[in-house]
Amino acid sequence: MRTRSLAALSTIVMTAALLAGCGSGGGGSSTDTYCKELKQAKSDFASLGSGTPDFSKFDAVIATFHKLAGDSPSAVHSDWKTLDTGLTTLQKDLKDAGISMKDLGPISQGQLPPGMTQNDLAALAPKLQAAFAKLDDPKFKSASDKIEKHAKSTCHVNLSTS
After folding, report:
1. What confidence tens digit (pLDDT) does each residue in 121-161 have?
2. Can you give the chain as a three-state secondary structure string?
3. What percent of the chain has pLDDT over 90?
4. Which of 15, 34, 105, 113 has its CA 20 to 30 A from that of 124?
5. 0.85 exceeded by the pTM?
């Protein structure tokens, strides 16, 4: 369970880092605005791509993703919607399992969130695995790649985490 959870968390962090960096701008905003927000988002959310992401900030990051997905330029709008829908679904699945994104931090460090026992976590394992498995769909990687390519070509912003 721990290995799969860490792999799933890596997927979320990678998606979050890409999403966080892939700003807004469509919905009537200029390309200049899009690029400015893209650059700001990249620096604001760089910690999500770090070796120890701060999951306590993830709910706020997801709120930003929702805004960015709604404002994204037409060239990447459908890709943003794909990623945004995936994260929204994950957030709902975690809530249905009785856990939040900020609980993932302690879990990824081998700690239990407050009020959770090892048995509680073990009982949640199938729900967590099912929730994270949805992000394994190739459409999410494709959408992330398209957003990253667009960011680099349009705004000269490299969203690569390497």
Report:
1. 888 888 888 888 888 889 988 998 998 899 899 988 887 76
2. CHHHHHHHHHHHHHHHHHHHHCCCCCCCCCHHHHHHHHHHHHHHCHHHHCCCCCHHHHHHHHHHHHHHHHHCCCCCHHHHHHHHHHHHHHHHHHHHCCCCHHHHHHHHCCCCCCCCCHHHHHHHHHHHHHHHHHHHCHHHHHHHHHHHHHHHHHHCCCCCCC
3. 10
4. 15
5. no
